[in-house]
Amino acid sequence: MLIALLSSLVFAFDVSLLWGGIFFGVFLMMNFFYWRRKKEQFAYGDSNGGIIISEKPKLIAVATDLSKGFAGSYPVVKVLSYKGKGS
Question: H helices then E strands: how many in the chain?
């Protein structure tokens, strides 16, 4: 996204100020909405539930799927020690 934004600026200064400005505006808005969506994703909806599997030492297990949506499913379980409140 950022590369397209910067290339439209180069195009604006080198070739055509009108078309470069239009491309810059379009890519600027795309960039803005992309990063706003990423902020919302991590603020509201990018969490994985975990389960406590051992009390002493305190261990939790978290499950997720590492697929990118097009090449199958890659389920993973990560076990890690918990160093938060009450440990």
Answer: 2, 3
